[in-house]
Structures are given as C-alpha cells and as structure tokens.
C-alpha cells in the first residue's frame, strides 16, 4: 500500500478531525521544532550560509508565531457558521461547515526551505488533513532534518516526508491527492497545475515573478534606501517577494543611490564577500546565471564575487536596457537594476505591461500617489513605505495573482485554503409547502409572489 492510500485510510478513520487532535498535533510540532532548533540553525547555515539571526527571524520564529496564532483561533474557525435563510426556505437552517479536503501534498522550495514547508503544513493540520511534504533537493541538509523532525513527531500515515529530486515530485504528482500546495517557480508551477488538472485536484500555487519597487520624489529617501536594501539583500536576494527592480524619480536618483550604498555598507559592511553572516547562492547553476546578469547596463556599486563560496555582493546596476535578460527574467539574487522616470505614470505603465507581480512596494508620503498606484497596479500583496513586512502578519493573506500564483495562505487564510466550505441546509419535517411541487394548485402564482 503506497503512502497516499495509507494517508487516505488514516483520514477516513476520522482521527484527524477533532479539535483536540489538531491542537495536540500543532503543539507536538512546535515542541519538536524547539527541540531541534540548534540543528536547524546549523542546517540553514550549511545550505544557505544564513546567520543565526536571519535563520531564526525568517525561518523558525515565523513558524512559532504561526502555530501560536492558529492555536489561539482554531476552535473558533472550526465552528460551522450559520448564515441567513431566505423566505422561500422558511423552517430551515443554513450553515457552512469547514470540511477537510483529505490527503494533501505540499511541495516546498529551497530559498526558505524550512519556513515554506512548515507554514502550509500548519494550515493542513489545522484544517484536519493529512500531508506529504516534498522539500527541495537543493537544500539537502535542511530537507533531511525536516524528515527527521516529522518522523520523530508523527506517524507517516498522518504526516510524511518524501525526499528526492524532480523524479520524486513527478511520482507524487501522479498520485490523486485531495489537495496540492506548491511553492516555487512559474515554470514548475505550470507543470504542477497541468498534473493537478488530470485528476481535477484543487491547488494553491505560490509562485514568483518580478516584484517592482517605486521610490517617488516625495519619499523619505534615507529610510526608503535602508528598507529597500534590507528587503532586496535578505537571503542574498533569494526571496520570492524581494524587490526585483527599482524605479526612482529622476529628481532624487542621485541622492537615493547615495543613501542606498550607505545602507548596504551599514547592513553588510564594506566587504560583503568577506562577511561571514552574508548569505550564499544556493548552487553553481544559479551562481553562474546571476553572474551573467552583471554584464547588463552599467555597474554602479558592488559586482564582486567569490566563486569558491558562491557569494555575489550586493550589486546595483544603472542604465539597464529594458530588453536585457535581467529585466525579462526573475533575478532571485543580490543584483538590483535601477531605472528612472520623470512622471509616475511612466513607471505605472511599464509595470502594467508586465506579468502581474507577486509583490509591489511604493515609497511616497502623499496619500494621493499611494491610492493611485494601489488602484492602477494589480499584484499579490505588498507595502507602502516598506518591503517584505506584509509577510510578517498572520492577519493578511499571502498569495499571488496571474502568473505570480493563485490562492493564498497564512493565519486563518491557511485554514481556509485547506478546508472546503461545505454548504448544508437543514430542513424541517414538521410541515411542507405544497406550492414547491409541480402538481400544486396555483403553484406558479404563489411562487411568483414569493420569489419576485
């Protein structure tokens, strides 16, 4: 019997449905993560050279916070919700039941290999499902540790981990899971969606794309520079919601870039390639791809590399041609192309002609300009006068639109993602209206009076 059959049997036994079981599972998960926290910090350092601070804040701490938030609210979320019933249905009661899908498949990426495996798992457990996690083979130390943590905590019939490369993903995608949650590239997302369509499996796709940032002339420039630098170069730019390219108003370009380079020095030192806490590129393939982008435009700042350690220092490029590969492909690394504009509509028009981004960031102190970009640009989510921070709140759904993905999660939105809204009408048996039936006298006349 394969893992999917076993998980479906486990699910249909009903054991995963009660609130107490879900609560216990989430508490066990948190306790197991805490017991392995030091191992996780070392694993993240091994695979991505993440500092303890970055690893905890972006990978581990955010998972603790998510579990705590879900535990605080889960009982309320699980309760059936009573909704209104129309006059035509008098005597009946209408309710919406959050119903688990069943056996779920979670395919997670390498850039935040722990957090992006655990956060959807929290939603699957909270929703009453079983789960198979397929972590990335590009971060093997973390993936092996995920398997160790999960096997210590749960039976495989409930939560399991499948290790391997593309062939393992293909094997799992050929199985008729009840739900698929995928985080990764647009190209692989299309394959996952095609596979899901063969079994008509509901799916969430958390993809990427080129997330723009605009710095308008009325922005608080020094603070904007620091926040863009932090958002861009966290995890060496290997973040799906990192600013991919930047538009800055021509009147403040020189001043902004001066502040920006100062911010890089403050965050990573004068020689980031020698900073032991600065992240590395995940593998040689991505390192060489990123190194090729350094030929685009004109080098304004940075550009140094260390091939042995797969490090590319924070880099700024100017005078970039909009047709260069760096402007047509997702960068996913510590290189920021900077473009200028004289009128805000120029930047808006350029962004609207591209695939819809996962995130968008706008720096301006004027409410009118803020409202303008929010109304005219379609994107998954983002910030005004900040970067990345929208990911840190469980009250906001996280997800893309168009080529940047479909569906959302985090907090209650994770619970909603992993549950079907089952509509139930409980009808009275104490009386029966004859006009509902085709042989009733004056049925049409009565129906018109009630239904018009």
From TrEMBL:
The active site of this protein is located at 206
What PANTHER family does this protein map onto?
Answer: ALDEHYDE DEHYDROGENASE, ALDEHYDE DEHYDROGENASE TYPE III, ISOFORM Q
Query: Which organism does this sequence originate in?
Result: Amphibacillus indicireducens
Q: Per its UniProt record, what SUPFAM superfamilies does this chain match?
A: ALDH-like
PROSITE patterns (UniProt xref): ALDEHYDE_DEHYDR_CYS, ALDEHYDE_DEHYDR_GLU
Q: Where is the Aldehyde dehydrogenase domain?
A: 18-424
Q: Which positions, given as ranges, span the membrane?
A: none
What family does this chain come from, according to its entry?
A: Belongs to the aldehyde dehydrogenase family.
The taxonomy runs: Bacteria, Bacillati, Bacillota, Bacilli, Bacillales
| InterPro entries reported in the protein's UniProt record | Ald_DH/histidinol_DH (IPR016161), Ald_DH_C (IPR016163), Ald_DH_CS_CYS (IPR016160), Ald_DH_CS_GLU (IPR029510), Ald_DH_N (IPR016162), Aldehyde_DH_dom (IPR015590), Aldehyde_DH_NAD(P) (IPR012394)
The name of this protein is: Aldehyde dehydrogenase
Q: Which domain of life is it from?
A: Bacteria
Its keywords, alphabetically, are:
Oxidoreductase
């Amino acid at each position: 019997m394969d893992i999917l059959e076993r998980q479906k049997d486990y699910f249909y036994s009903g054991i995963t449905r009660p609130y107490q079981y879900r609560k216990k599972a989430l508490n066990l998960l948190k306790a197991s993560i805490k017991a392995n926290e030091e191992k996780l910090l070392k694993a993240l350092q091994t695979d991505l050279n993440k500092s303890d601070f970055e690893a905890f804040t972006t990978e581990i701490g955010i998972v603790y916070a998510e579990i705590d938030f879900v535990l605080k609210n889960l009982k309320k979320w699980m309760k059936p919700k009573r909704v209104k019933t129309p006059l035509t249905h008098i005597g009946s009661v209408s309710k919406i039941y959050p119903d688990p899908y069943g056996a779920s498949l979670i395919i997670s990426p390498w850039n935040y290999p722990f957090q992006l495996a655990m956060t959807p798992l929290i939603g699957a457990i909270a929703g009453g499902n079983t789960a198979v996690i397929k972590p990335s083979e590009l971060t093997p130390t973390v993936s092996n540790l995920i398997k160790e943590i999960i096997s210590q905590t749960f039976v495989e019939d409930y939560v399991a981990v499948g290790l391997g490369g593309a062939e393992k993903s293909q094997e799992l995608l050929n199985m008729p899971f009840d739900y698929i949650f995928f985080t990764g590239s647009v190209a692989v997302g299309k394959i996952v969606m095609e596979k899901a369509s063969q079994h008509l499996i509901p799916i969430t796709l958390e993809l990427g794309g080129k997330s723009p940032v605009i710095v308008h002339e009325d922005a608080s420039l020094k603070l904007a520079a620091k926040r863009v630098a932090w958002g861009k170069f966290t995890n060496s730019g290997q973040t799906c919601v990192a600013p991919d390219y930047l538009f800055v108003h021509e009147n403040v370009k020189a001043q902004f870039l001066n502040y920006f380079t100062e911010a890089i020095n403050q965050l990573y030192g004068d020689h980031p390639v020698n900073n032991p806490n600065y992240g590395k590129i995940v593998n040689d393939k991505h390192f060489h791809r990123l190194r090729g982008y350094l030929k685009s435009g004109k080098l304004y700042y940075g550009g140094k590399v260390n091939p042995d350690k797969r490090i590319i220092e924070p880099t700024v490029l100017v005078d970039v041609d909009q047709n260069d590969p760096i402007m047509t492909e997702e960068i996913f690394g510590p290189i920021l192309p900077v473009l200028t504009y004289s009128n805000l509509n120029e930047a808006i028009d350029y962004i609207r002609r591209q695939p819809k981004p996962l995130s968008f960031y706008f720096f301006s102190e004027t409410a009118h300009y803020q409202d303008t970009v929010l109304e005219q640009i379609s994107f998954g989510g983002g910030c005004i006068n900040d970067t990345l921070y929208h990911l840190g709140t469980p009250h906001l759904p996280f997800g893309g639109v168009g080529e940047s993905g479909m569906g959302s999660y985090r907090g209650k939105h994770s619970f909603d993602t992993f549950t079907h809204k089952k509509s139930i009408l409980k009808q009275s048996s104490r009386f029966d209206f004859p006009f509902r039936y085709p042989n009733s006298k004056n049925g049409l006349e009565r129906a018109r009076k009630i239904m018009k």
